Amino acid sequence: MDFLRKHIEEVVELTDDEFGFIQSHFGHIQKRKHQYLVQEGDIVDKEYWVVKGCVKSYFLDDDGKEHILRFGMENWWITDYESFVKRTPSRMSIDCLEDTDLLYITYENREKLTSQMHKMERFWAKKSKNGTVAMQNRILSLLKNSAKERYDLLLEEYPSLFQRVPKKLIAAYLGVSRETLSRLHP
């Protein structure tokens, strides 16, 4: 779990005892490619941290078209946050695009940690702020940028994603057809 400690210490310093306490609140799971972390309709009680692998968060519209909200790769946190916080049925699914190794924390354990350790409250506040900024930038990009500009931004920011994720999923993330993506990236 040294990788988790390193990740947390990018935001806050920890003593060995503090990290031991934090570590005791996490669980570990491994999922195979195509296995779900969350299925639409689930009440989500876990937030996941990707140790190794890649996942996608998505929903299907009434016509069965897949819309990808986000990907999650190493060192990324992912869940259906609305369901996680509000205890409502999930409106999306999250599944593994690769065999994936994850740490998770339950809602209850996260609440305990943040109430008992100011450092972890600060850690998750920063992660939450960064996630909000990323989602805001994604929405603005979808609203104002051309498909080509969205493609170029994604390629610039996450070049490894293009090696790990099928083109049809990149297209679903960018909000374009597979054919349009082919014209953007021959």
Number of helices: 9
Could you spell the SSE succession in H and E letters?
HHEEEEEEHEEHHHHHH
Question: Could you name the CATH homologous superfamily of the domain at 2-116?
Answer: Jelly Rolls
The rough form would be described as: globular
| Low-confidence spans | none
Biggest pleated-sheet summary: 4 strands, antiparallel
Measured by DSSP, the beta-strand proportion falls in 15-25%
- The number of strands is 8
Determine the mean pLDDT: 94
- Terminal CA distance reads 41 Å
Spatial strand sequence of the major β-sheet: 1-8-3-6
What structural class do helix, strand and pairing data support? alpha+beta
| CATH fold type of the domain at 2-116 | Jelly Rolls
| Radius of gyration from CA coordinates | 17 Å
DSSP helix fraction = 40-55%
CATH architecture descriptor text of the domain at 2-116: Sandwich
- Broad CATH class of the domain at 2-116: Mainly Beta
